Amino acid sequence: MEKNNHYKNLLGRLCKANNISPRRFRFEQIEEFVIIHIKNQLKEGVDLECFKILNLIHQTVLPLGIRFDQQLYLYPGGHRLDKVVIMFNKEDYVLLNKKLEEGDI
């Protein structure tokens, strides 16, 4: 999957174009899921770059009809956001990469 990870490359390029470090997110594959971790950098509140990355994911994935789940992780006590996780089924993520490779957008 790593050599044909067109979506990871696309997201990295979009982040660079928007002056966001591509190191702000991390891809991980666990069994039948592909997970994108987006870390919140602020001690209080949510940093704007975190929301910009989420917006880029929504703008690029939803028009292609690919399903994913989004989950917020809070620190204990629930007053501070730790990270946001976007989770794809591996089949959906492979379909996303196939659509990007073939230009089926």
Structure report:
The chain is α+β, with helices and mostly antiparallel strands. Helices cover 37% and strands 27% of the residues. It is built from three helices and four strands. It has a four-stranded antiparallel beta sheet. Strand 1 (25-30) and strand 2 form a beta hairpin. The two termini are 20 Å apart. The model has no long low-confidence stretch (mean pLDDT 90).
Give the CA-CA distance, first to last residue: 20 Å
SSE string, helices as H and strands as E = HEEHEEH
Q: What's the alpha carbon Rg, rounded to whole Å?
A: 14 Å
Count of alpha/pi helices: 3
The 3D shape can be described as: globular
Largest sheet: 4 strands, antiparallel
Strand content: 25-35%
Average residue-wise pLDDT: 90
SS class = alpha+beta
What share of the residues lie within helices? 25-40%
Low-confidence spans:
none
Count the E strands: 4
- The spatial strand order of the largest sheet comes to 1-2-4-3
SSE arrangement:
Blueprint: H1 6-17, E1 25-30, E2 33-39, H2 48-61, E3 69-74, E4 81-89, H3 90-102
Antiparallel strand pairs: 1-2, 2-4, 3-4
Give me some keywords for this one.
four-stranded antiparallel beta sheet, 3 helices, 105 residues, 37% helix, alpha+beta, globular
In short:
The chain is of the alpha+beta class and 105 residues long. The chain contains three helices and four strands, in the order αββαββα.
